[in-house]
Every structure is written in structure tokens, then in C-alpha cells.
Automatic annotation (TrEMBL):
Native organism: Anaerobaca lacustris
Record's keyword terms, sorted: 4Fe-4S, DNA damage, DNA repair, Glycosidase, Hydrolase, Iron, Iron-sulfur, Metal-binding
Function: Adenine glycosylase active on G-A mispairs. MutY also corrects error-prone DNA synthesis past GO lesions which are due to the oxidatively damaged form of guanine: 7,8-dihydro-8-oxoguanine (8-oxo-dGTP).
Cofactor: [4Fe-4S] cluster
Reaction(s) the record says it catalyses: Hydrolyzes free adenine bases from 7,8-dihydro-8-oxoguanine:adenine mismatched double-stranded DNA, leaving an apurinic site
Pfam families, per the entry: HHH, HhH-GPD, NUDIX_4
One term of GO molecular function: 4 iron, 4 sulfur cluster binding
InterPro entries: A/G_AdeGlyc_MutY, DNA_glycosylase, Endonuclease-III-like_CS2, HhH-GPD_domain, HhH_base_excis_C, HhH_motif, MIG/MutY, MutY_C
Enzyme Commission code(s) on record: 3.2.2.31
UniProt-listed GO biological process terms: base-excision repair; mismatch repair
Protein's name in the database: Adenine DNA glycosylase
CDD domains per the UniProt record, alphabetical: ENDO3c (cd00056), NUDIX_MutT_NudA_like (cd03425)
């Protein structure tokens, strides 16, 4: 990345020194900070995309225990990787991790590459993640900009433009690079992120304890709650979705979502979005026929689940169904299985489907108790 001068009177050293002193004193004890293994650092950085530290930490520890090396991850079945990732969300991260591990084995001899350009060539690694890995794992002087760093830089340097705009993004990356010290670039990058996570909060930041309070231009002008500039959020759409727990001979039908779509590679109960003018039952008949090619009889409701994704919400209606006719086939999915209800928990399902599984198994258990 070509260097551009910082458009500010602030001295980089006036930011580096107090920030690193603060980080040395206040840095959280996180599991991925106890290792210098580039593989483990890579895993943590992928998990921390779109996920809070507190949520990612237990997943990280389970993941590196199960797959302690790049080779172990590359040799694993994707289903096993997705099952271990279950509940963490944004499953394309897990699929890309698996693909990238295989590429690291075949292209780089099982060693995570050190350079930014080589890291960017791997699935799931963008500019931020490449900067994080190269600086933290390999000590390279590479910048990074994420949401937390954006907030810190916009306030410290009083950047008033919308951070989503390309010209502002370019300025932020230039600032991040100019600030990087020759020594301890990884620690400095982590300190910037830590400051945004713990002190430079989106609303009402506790500026009185910030190590940069004497240099922050936003604080000086009383603009810390107005920066970064925010776009007006669009209304979040809500979709009605229906699924069928289809039973036949003591087993239920599940199918695997297409690998290239939302929640790709996860298992689910057949179904889909309700169209305008359809009843829930009509939508379920149509979706099951289009997805797996069979006809069903729709029975009682099992559960209704409200679930939020990043850009939309769903209300998911699950019905107990029985198989009527037809041969199951993969029309809108990658695989089909008839499984015992008690085995459903062995498969990786989206979070909303897991709530249905819990309701289904609870109902079966209550039925068994009632018959005794």
C-alpha cells in the first residue's frame, strides 16, 4: 500500500507511545494472545469477523483443540468443521477456512504465508485480516482497519466523512499505515482495536480514561458522540418461512443447503419462503415439492421461531408432516438423509432449526412420559 502523509498536525509518536503503554497495562488476557502460532492467530481473526470476543473465545479453544494444525483442518470433513462452528454464525467463514487450509497445504507446504499479497490470495482473507495476520503473527509493518479502528481514527483525527465511502476508507487506511511503528506493529494494531472495543465506544465513550484523551480532536471539539458519521439505517425486511418435519417409518427427512448460498453446507428441514397470497400450508407443499420432489401431508404446528440475521429477519413456522408420495431427490439442495430424531443433534443446523429440533425432541419426550 502506497504511503500517504497523515492530513493532521497530530504527531504519530504522540499516539503510539501512550497507546502502547496503555495496552501493555490493560490488554485483556485472551486465548489467542497466549500463542505466536500463525495458524491459531489466523483462526482467531476469522472468528472475530462479525463476532464479539466473548462469544468467539470458547469456539476458538474448541476449534484449535479439535484441529490443532493447518493439516488437521485441511484433512477434516467439511461437515465436521461446520458442526464445530455451529452457533457462531456467518458460516461462509468456516467454509472458507476449510478451503484456505487445503490451499495452504497444497500451495504453501502447510505453512501459513507471511506476506500480505499471499494471504490475500486465500479464501476468506481480505485487507483487514491480511493486515492482522501479517502484523500480529509475523511482525510485519502492515496496517489494518476494522470497525473499532475506524471509530478511533475518525475521532482522534476528526474525520467527518462517511467511513463507508471509498475516499474516507482510503484516508483511514493511510492514517493507520502512517501511525504504525517499525517495532511492535502487531501490538500497536491490537491496541487500536482494543481501544475501540473497550474505551472508544459507539455511544458515550468514557473519554476521561482514554490514553489518547489529550490528542483526540473529536474530544477537543466535543464531537465524540457525532463521529464517525452514520448513515440512516434502512428498514430490516422480515420474511415468513415454513418448514416441514417430514416423518416416515420413524425417521425424519433433512437436506443440506447448497454450498454456495446463505448458510451453505448446513442441514435443515425442507421448506422455504411463503409467497404473497399463499397460506402457510400451501407454501409448505410447494416448497417441499420444489426442494426435494415429494408430496406431504401437513399436520400440527411444532414451533414458531423468530430469528434475526444481519440484514433481515424471519418468522419460521415448523409443522409436523408425513410423507405422502414421490421419490426424494436433490432439486434445491446438495444432499438428502432420513435420520432418527435422536440423531438430529449430530448434524450442523442453522440456529433457527436447532430451536425446532429442541421443541420436537421435547414433545417426543413428553409423549413417552405420558404413555407410561
Amino acid at each position: 500500500m502506497a504511503k500517504e502523509p497523515v492530513q493532521s498536525k497530530l504527531s504519530p509518536s504522540a499516539i503510539r507511545r501512550p497507546l502502547l503503554r496503555w495496552f501493555d497495562r490493560e490488554a485483556r488476557d485472551l486465548p489467542w494472545r497466549r500463542t505466536r502460532d500463525p495458524y491459531a492467530i489466523w483462526i482467531s481473526e476469522i472468528m472475530l469477523q462479525q463476532t464479539r470476543v466473548q462469544a468467539a473465545a470458547p469456539y476458538y479453544e474448541r476449534f484449535v483443540r479439535r484441529f490443532p494444525t493447518v493439516v488437521a483442518l485441511a484433512r477434516a470433513r467439511l461437515d465436521s468443521v461446520l458442526k464445530l462452528w455451529e452457533g457462531l454464525g456467518y458460516y461462509c467463514r468456516a467454509r472458507n477456512l476449510h478451503k484456505a487450509a487445503q490451499e495452504i497445504v497444497t500451495r504453501f507446504g502447510g505453512q501459513l504465508p507471511e506476506t500480505r499479497s499471499e494471504l490475500l490470495s486465500l479464501p476468506g482473507i481480505g485487507a483487514y485480516t491480511a493486515g492482522a495476520i501479517s502484523s500480529i503473527a509475523f511482525g510485519q509493518r502492515e496496517p489494518l482497519v476494522d470497525g473499532n479502528v475506524t471509530r478511533v481514527l475518525c475521532r482522534v483525527f476528526r474525520v467527518r466523512g462517511n467511513p463507508k465511502e471509498a475516499v474516507v476508507q482510503k484516508k483511514l487506511w493511510s492514517l493507520a499505515e502512517e501511525l504504525l511503528p517499525a517495532a511492535r506493529p502487531g501490538d500497536f494494531n491490537q491496541a487500536l482495536m482494543e481501544l475501540g472495543s473497550e474505551i472508544c465506544l459507539p455511544k458515550n465513550p468514557p473519554c476521561e480514561v482514554c490514553p489518547l484523551r489529550r490528542t483526540c480532536l473529536a474530544k477537543r471539539h466535543g464531537e465524540q458522540n457525532r463521529l464517525p458519521a452514520r448513515r440512516r439505517k434502512k428498514p430490516i425486511p422480515c420474511h415468513t418461512v415454513v418448514v416441514g418435519v417430514i416423518e416416515r417409518n420413524g425417521r425424519v427427512l433433512i437436506d443440506k443447503r447448497p454450498s454456495d448460498g446463505l448458510l451453505g453446507g448446513l442441514w435443515e428441514f425442507p421448506g422455504g419462503k411463503k409467497q404473497s397470497g399463499e397460506s402457510l400450508e400451501e407454501a409448505l407443499h410447494r416448497e417441499v415439492l420444489e426442494e426435494v420432489g415429494i408430496r406431504i401431508r401437513v399436520g400440527d404446528s411444532i414451533a414458531t421461531v423468530d430469528h434475526a440475521y444481519s440484514h433481515f429477519r424471519i418468522r419460521l413456522h415448523a409443522f409436523r408432516c408425513t410423507y405422502a408420495s414421490g421419490t426424494p431427490q436433490c432439486l434445491g439442495c446438495d444432499a438428502i438423509k432420513w435420520v432418527r430424531p435422536g440423531d438430529l443433534r449430530r448434524y450442523a443446523f442453522p440456529a433457527a432449526n436447532k430451536k425446532i429440533i429442541r421443541a420436537l425432541l421435547d414433545a417426543r419426550q413428553a409423549g413417552r412420559r405420558g404413555s407410561q
